[in-house]
Amino acid sequence: MLITALAFAGPGLIAANAGNDAGGIATYASAGAQFGYRTLFVMLLVTVGLVVVQEMCARLGAHTGEGLGSLIREQFSIRVTAFALLAFLAANLGLVVSEFAGIAAALDLVGVSRYVSVPIAAVVIWALVVFGSYRYAERLFLILSLAFLSYPIAAVLARPEIGKAASQTIWPHLLGTKAFLLLTVALIGTTITPYMQFYVAGAVADKGIGPADYRAERIDTVGGAIFADLISMFIIIATAAAIHTRAPLDTAAQAAHALAPVAGRFAEQLFALGLLGASALAAAVVPLSTAYAISEAAGVERSVGRRFREAPLFLGLFTAQIFIGAAIALIPGNLIHLLINAQLLNGIITPILLTYVLILAGRKRLLGDAANGPVYRLIATICVAVVALMAAAALVITVLGWFGIG
């Protein structure tokens, strides 16, 4: 039944589930390992923000028949459009690197060197998209990532402090430390990821979902966001219960330890399977979202159903990101730290792009009666403002750290 449902999964579920990628898993697991259940309240608020943002993007795609890239080009000046796309490209290129780092970390757990796994994965993912069989692979990657559904089971079997977890979910137990703030911004960045907004709007338009079909797409989008974040919260709970030394994660094996109550001595293999599926899914979705956005802004053909000669910019951008991301992921270094830092970068860039979404979704001349109403506009504005304040604080702390201050 679940596999049948996945066969008809829409852009909303695909985009949200892709957010539980390598960087997401590493960040959620590190949140549990480092701060226990304290970040669950943050995730509750972030889930509200994700639902609001994803719904606005899906609505824009359905009611205009266009993705965010073309909407930004049409509704804003060339300079403003260029700024948005450069910010988006910077964030996404970092994410593509992290997805291939996730593939490397997953296969490293079963003894495959990154110098073997990353090049092969890059070629396979590129070929699946360019030669038109990506839609089938998309379902396969989703099914592989179902391994992470074992986290809710692990969270129960690990015997967490249920009362403590519940109270810290509904009531803030925040810490006023640099580490807590930076990880909070990383949680925002990995959950409300810019590529998810561009992807869902572009994919809704590409699939021809219109106003008449939007009711079903809205359910897909909102349900997908809530489902993905519930899994994220269970990852935090399972890791907090399994790891008692409160410190940042350093290896994928440490994150896999939280699955031991479910898989026993096969915990690392189960974690590797889920990480591989989630990373491969996002390694295709992230560069596709960049290609959608820039091709839309340029007003040229963009579709995974086209050949290279029909959509050279779209497929060329996709190809370049795949191979640059894979090449950088081969550079020696700590893969977990790379994954979390990529999410921090996303958290800093996210409010810039959310501002565009907020403005577009509120324009009646663009959406008519489907534009944000007063209450929805207020909620969305508060969400974006809070994310912006957190990102600004993290950016200041990061820059001061470069000069040895703080």
UniProtKB/TrEMBL annotation:
It comes from Actinoallomurus liliacearum. Its main location: membrane. This is Nramp family divalent metal transporter. It is found in: Membrane. Signal peptide: none annotated. Keywords: Membrane, Transmembrane, Transmembrane helix, Transport. Pfam families: Nramp (PF01566). InterPro entries: NRAMP_fam. It is a multi-pass membrane protein. The chain crosses the membrane at residues 41-62, 83-106, 112-133, 140-159, 179-201, 222-243, 270-292, 313-332, 344-363, 375-405.
